[in-house]
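Key result, reporting period 2: structure in, sequence out.
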């Protein structure tokens, strides 16, 4: 993986956490993947940090407000209708 792509992926972690708290299923298709694959190109270091820093407060607040019961409920990540992840939210966080 190119370093810029990896940095863009890491800058997405807070929004990923937010989505695992707010949605029971996160669904993507090949078309979505195609759009995401090049999203990092032409992004500056500052833009990547701003993306991370901008989403972090909401992710932290959401995590702090989420009950243990909600963290124990299963969350799914689907790609083209196939479950790639189907685990309790807590396990998703621990392995993310």
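The corresponding designed sequence is given below.
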């Amino acid at each position: 993986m190119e370093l810029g792509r990896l940095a863009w992926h890491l800058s997405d972690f807070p929004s990923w956490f937010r989505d695992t708290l707010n949605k029971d299923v996160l669904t993507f298709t090949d078309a979505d993947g195609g759009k995401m694959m090049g999203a990092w190109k032409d992004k500056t270091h500052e833009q990547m940090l701003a993306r991370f820093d901008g989403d972090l407060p909401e992710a932290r607040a959401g995590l702090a407000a989420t009950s243990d019961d909600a963290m124990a409920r299963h969350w799914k990540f689907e790609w083209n209708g196939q479950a790639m992840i189907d685990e309790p939210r807590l396990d998703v966080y621990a392995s993310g």
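The two ends are 18 Å apart (CA to CA). The chain is about 60% helix and 20% strand. This case is discussed further under Risks and Mitigation.
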